[in-house]
Amino acid sequence: MQVDNQKVRNIKQENLIKPRNLKKIENSTNAKNSLITQTYSQRSVMNVFEKYQHDRLTFVQAVADLASRETNIQALQSVDVITLLKPLLLDSVPGVQQAAALALGRLANYSQEMAYIMVNNDILPQLIYSLSEKNHFYKKASCFLIRAISKHNSELATAVTNSGAVNALVSCLEDFDPSVKEAAAWAIGYIARHNEELAQVVVDAGSIPLLVLCVQEPEISLKRIAISALADIAKHSPEMAQAVVDADTIHFITMYITQLDNKLQRQICSCLAHIAKHNIDLAESVVDMDILPNIFICMKSPDPYVRKNASSLICELTKHSPDLAQLIVNSGGIVPIVEYLKDSTGNSRMPALMALGYISAFSETLAMSVILAKAVPVLAVVLDEEVEEHLLAACSWTIGQISRHSPDHAKIVADNGILIKLLYIIKATINENTNSDLFIKTKRAMKAIILKILNIELLDPLLEVDTPYCVLKHLVAQYAKLLPYDIASRRAFVISSGLAKIQQIAMKYAPQLISADLAASNKSKVNEEDNHYADEASSTNNSKLAEAIRTINSCYPEEIVHYYSPGYSTLLLEKINNFKYDGSHKEESNGDTIDNSNSSGLQTELQTSSNDSPNTDNTEAEENVQEENSSSQDVLNSGSDENINNNSDELT
C-alpha cells in the first residue's frame, strides 16, 4: 500500500511539472521567433542603406571615370552633374566624399566654364569646411579640386582665396603624408602664378617657410613641386623674390642641382632665373652660391627644358652689369651658350640670343669674346632657319650689339654675309609694318654695321636702286666718307659699277643733281613703280642723301660722272641725229680724202656735244680731277665693262 501511495504522489508531481515546462518552452519559442523577426527586419533595412551607399559610391566613381576624358565633359555638363555631386562632398562615407571631390576636380581641370559653375554653386565653402577633418585621401582630392579651379585665370584664383582656401592649403603643408604636402604645394603655386596680389596673399599666409621645408623632404616629386611654387611666387616683383631669398631658399635648392633628375633641375634653374631677373642684388645673391659651373653642365643636359632654363638663368644674370657679364665670360660661359644656340631650334633659342646680345652690349672686349666663340656664323644660320618675327628681331638686335663697337667687329659680321640677310628681312617687312619690332631692330642693326665698315667691297652688294631708302641713306653716306680719302677705293668703286648705281639712285631720289639734258632724256623712262618715290625725292632734295651723292660725284671727273649717268648714250644719239651737215665742205676729186680742217672741225663738234654741261668751280672737284687725270682713261677702258655694254646696246 505504501508503494502504491508513493507512485500516486510521483504521478501527481509529474503532472504538475509538465505544464510549467511547456510554458517555458513556449515562451522560449516565442522569444526566438521575435528575435528572428527583428533580425530580418534590421537586415532588410541595412540592405537598403548598403545598396544606397553602394550605388552612391558606384555613381561618383563612374562620374569620376567619365570626367577623366575630355570628350565627356560637355555631356556631363548637360545633365547638371555638379548639382548631383555637390551634396556628396558632405557624405558620411569617406570614399564617396573622396570620389566626389576627384570627379569635380577633373571636371574643373578640363573646362573653365565648369570651374565657374562650381564657384557660383558654392562648392568651395563645403570643400574647405571638411578639408581639415578628413583623411589624407580626401585632402589630396580637395587640393586637386582647388588647383583645377585656380589654374584657369586670376578671377577664379581670387575666388579661391576669398573662400579661405589658402589657409587650409597652408595647413596641409604641415601634414605628415608627403602626398598631401605635394598636392597643397601644387595648388599654392597655381594660385600664386597669376599676379602679384595673389602671390602676396600666399606669402602673408606663411607658405614660404613651409615650402622651403618641403624642399628638404626626401621625396623628389615633393622637392620639384615646392621649388616650382617658390618660383611662381618670386617671378612677380623684387619684393616677392626678396621674400623667397630671405627664407634661405637659394642655399637649399642649389644643393640639389647636381642630382641626376631632369625635372628637378628644370625647376631649380627656373626658380633661380626668376629670382635673378629683378635686380643686380638678387642676381649677385644667386652667383654667390658658386653655381655657374653646375649651370654650364646643365646646358649640356640631354633634357631640352633643362638646357633652356639654364640658358634663361645665364641670360638673366648677364643683363644687369658688365661685371656679371665678365664673370660669365671668365667662367667659360660663352661657348656653352653658342653650342646651345647652334643645337636648339625655335623659341628655345631666345634666351641664348638675348644672352649673347647682353654680353656684347657692355664693351668692345666682351663683344670680341663673343666673336671668338664663333657666335657670328651661328647667328647667320639663325637668320636663315627661323621664321618667327620675335626670334629674327632678337637675332638682329644681338648682331647690332656685336657690330657697333669698332670696324673690326663690323667687318667680321659682314664677312659672314649677314648684311644681305638683314637687307632681305627689311625688304620683306617694309611693306607690311614699319613699326614692327623686327623692322626697327633690323634697321638699327644694319645702320650700326654700315657706319663701322671701312672696306667698300663689303658694302657693294647692298648698293642697288631698289634698296630701301632707310638703308640707302646710311650706305651712300658711308661711301661719301670713304671715297674722298682712298684712290684705290675710288677706282674699285667704278669697276664694280658702283658709280653707275649712284647715278641711278640720284636720278630716283635727287634728280636735281643730274644735268638738265640727262634729266630730260630720262623723264620718259620713269616707270609707274617709281611714281611713289616722287614725294620722297622731292622731300630729300636737300637731304643728307643728296649731299652724300654730291660728295661722291665730286670725287670723279665730270666726264666720268656723265658717262655713267643714265641716258647718257641716248643723249649722244639725239645729238648725232640733230647734227646738220651744212654742205660747205667739198670732197676732193679722187673722193678718197676729206679736208683736214673740216675733219678737225667735225671732231671738235662731236667733242663739244659729248660734254653737255660745263665744268664747275668746285675746289674739291678740281683737286680730284687732277688726281684722276692720269688714271681716268684706264678706268674708262678697263673698269666699266658692264656700263659700256649697256651703252652700246642702247646705241645699237
TrEMBL record:
InterPro entries: ARM-like, ARM-type_fold, Armadillo, HEAT. ARM repeats lie at residues 164-206. Coiled coil: none annotated. Residues 584-652 are annotated as: Disordered. GO terms for molecular function: microtubule binding. GO terms for cellular component: microtubule cytoskeleton. Gene3D superfamilies: Leucine-rich Repeat Variant. The keyword Repeat applies. Residues 591-617, 633-652 have a biased composition (Polar residues). Keywords: Repeat. Pfam families: Arm, HEAT. GO terms for biological process: cilium movement. This is ARM repeat-containing protein.
